[in-house]
Structures are given as C-alpha cells and as structure tokens.
Specification:
Layout lengths: L3 E4 L6 E2 L3 H12 L7 H6 L5 H7 L5 H22 L1 E2 L3 H10 L3 E9 H10 L8 E5 L15 H10 L7 E5 L2 H10 L2 E5 L8 H4 L5 E2 L2 H18 L4
InterPro entries: HAD-like_hydrolase_sf, HAD-like_sf, HAD_2, HAD_sf, PGP-like_dom2
Protein name: Haloacid dehalogenase
Pfam families: HAD_2 (PF13419)
C-alpha cells in the first residue's frame, strides 16, 4: 500500500508573504484596537483566528466576530493572490504523486478558505482531500483547544485501510502534537512560523531546512517502514 502524506498549509506549502499578519493588523486598526508586536502576529499564523485574537491579541469578545469578518474580506480580496508557493514544493508534490503517494492537506484554516487558497495557488489538484476547521471561529474561549487533533483524525479516518503509513508535515507544534496523539510520524519544516525552540520542544528530533531535506526524510521513513515490513 502507498504512504499517506498530510501537509499543513500556511508556512509549509504556501508562504502568506504578510497576507495573514498584515490582514490581521488592518482589521484590528479598522476597529481601533491595538496591533500586537510582529513576533506575536507571526505566532497567530497556524491556530484558528478566533483563538489567536482572544489569546494572543487580547481582543474583547464583543469585537472578535467583526475583526474576523474584516480580516477575511481583506484576505479574499488580496491575501490569497499575494501569497506564494514555497520554492520546490510543486516538484516535490509531483514526485510524490508519481510514486503513488496519497496526498492530503490538514490545516486549521477553515476548509472553504483552504480550498480556495489552494485553487488560487494552483495546488488543489495535487491533493485527494483537504481537511480544515469549520468556518465558525467564534466558539467560546473557554472551550478546550484540541489544535489539529480532530482535523487529523478526520483525515486518517477517510484513508483508513488505504495506506502503509502516514506522515504529518508541518511548521508548528500543532502539527507535531497531532501526529504524536494519533501515533503517526511527523516531519517538521523550518521555513515556516515556529518560534525559536518551538519544534524541538514539541518533540522534533530534526527539522528539514529545505524541501530537498523534506523529501529525503520522507524517503527515509518510507524505506524504514518497508524494510521492517510493518505499518504505522
């Protein structure tokens, strides 16, 4: 059976090129709210926007919905087209697809927006499925944050019985934690938005510094599984 490789989106496949952080800044300014420091804005790339606005930007609950609305309008108007695919990603996806690898996206971005972004960037056709969050980011801050765990669970359930082993590829601790929770391998990439030490703290033994290194690590995992005659 083929391998299943599950990719994160922002910071892994696509560089938002300031579209996310800039859009958040503009939305906050439009509501007369303070804009966090750059390193805080960078940390907001990955988790659900509502969670980030409450926890990192300290946006009052009454303002969260309107900030999200303004951000999404800005992102759809200019952010998607202003983003760019990281160099080397397309050839890597083509190679994996040619080898018969099952490819999917697992992201905390709402699914319809993730699909639209992948279409705009010309990547949608490489993936059999795209798994994201619900459009509603307005759930109460008191709700338990499970990160990517339930989204990855949905993807793994879809492909149950169809893969020899699964690998989660991503740039944030959410990716590594979800993979560990579900007992699958993970490859951390170093060109995204993780803070210094974040990936190591989440259990990454190594971090791929380039798409070439990512491909080498995926190949090594695949060969190791095949030689052991097992699956994961």
């Amino acid at each position: 059976m083929p391998a299943l490789v599950l990719f994160d989106l922002d910071g892994t496949l696509v560089d938002p090129a300031g579209a996310i952080t800039g859009g958040i800044s503009r939305a906050l300014q439009a509501r007369g709210l303070p804009v966090p420091a750059e390193h805080v804005l960078d940390a907001m790339v990955g988790p659900p926007l509502g969670e980030s606005l409450r926890r990192l930007a300290r946006v009052p609950e009454a303002e969260v919905g309107e900030v999200i609305r303004l951000y999404r309008a800005d992102y759809r108007a200019a952010g998607m087209s202003g983003s760019r695919v990281y160099p080397g990603i397309v050839p890597a996806l083509e190679r994996l697809a040619a080898e018969g690898t099952l490819l999917a996206v697992v992201t905390q971005k709402p699914t319809p927006i993730a699909v639209e972004l992948l279409q705009v960037q010309g990547l949608a056709g490489y993936f059999e499925s795209i798994h994201g969050a619900a459009m509603d980011d307005l759930e109460g801050a008191s709700g338990k944050d499970l990160g990517k765990i339930p989204i990855l669970a949905e993807a793994l359930e879809r492909y149950a019985g169809r893969f020899s082993h699964a690998v989660m590829v991503g740039d944030r601790h959410y990716d590594l934690e979800a993979a560990a929770h579900h007992g699958i391998d993970a490859v951390a990439v170093g060109w995204g938005f993780a803070a210094d030490g974040e990936l190591a703290a989440a259990g990454a033994a190594t971090v791929a510094a380039s798409v070439e290194e990512l491909q080498e690590q995926l190949k090594a995992l695949d060969e190791g599984i095949r030689q052991s005659g097992g699956s994961r």
